[in-house]
Structures are given as structure tokens and as C-alpha cells.
Amino acid sequence: MIDIDKALASAVKTGKVSFGANTALQNAKTGKAKMIVLAANCPKDIKEQIEYYGEISKVPVITYKGGSMDLAEVCSKLFIISALSIRETGDSDILKLIEQ
Known about the structure:
By secondary structure, the protein is α+β, with helices and mostly antiparallel strands. 45% of the residues lie in helices and 17% in strands. The termini are close together.
């Protein structure tokens, strides 16, 4: 079982990660992200839009178990994060979460 916290932290440090719901929505529409992670307390309308476009463009969308503050803490950021897009995984093995 992969530790999602460690995998996310590794992706943020070594890969290319974009923060923000608007960016995540844009990446879901264009299919540029390899994965999108949503906080558990992401606003419902935004979450539904991102999941809808992610399904169309075949971008996996997962919901993080914690809220936006928890997601920010894992990513070592000083601002809340409701959504993030992983464009390059770097040294992280976070894409293995999809296979499970």
C-alpha cells in the first residue's frame, strides 16, 4: 500500500505540480495532467466539474482523505489547497494509486 502523503510530498518536491481548482479544471479539460488530487472539502460544484472533465479526457481524479489545510500541510505550502494537478511525477510513485 502506497502512503499517499509521502507520494504527494515527493511529487511536489521532484515533479511538476500546479495548485488551484481553476488550474485543475483547465488541466482536466485539456488532459495535460497525469493525475488530479482534490481535497475532501473541495466545493461540490468544482469537484463535479473536475471529475466530469477528468473522465472525458481520461485524467484520473482522486479525493484526498483530508481537507484543504491537510493537503497544504502535506505539500509544505502556506496556503490552503483544494485541488492540485500533477503534470510530472518526478521521483514519486503516486500513479500507482490508480492501479490499486
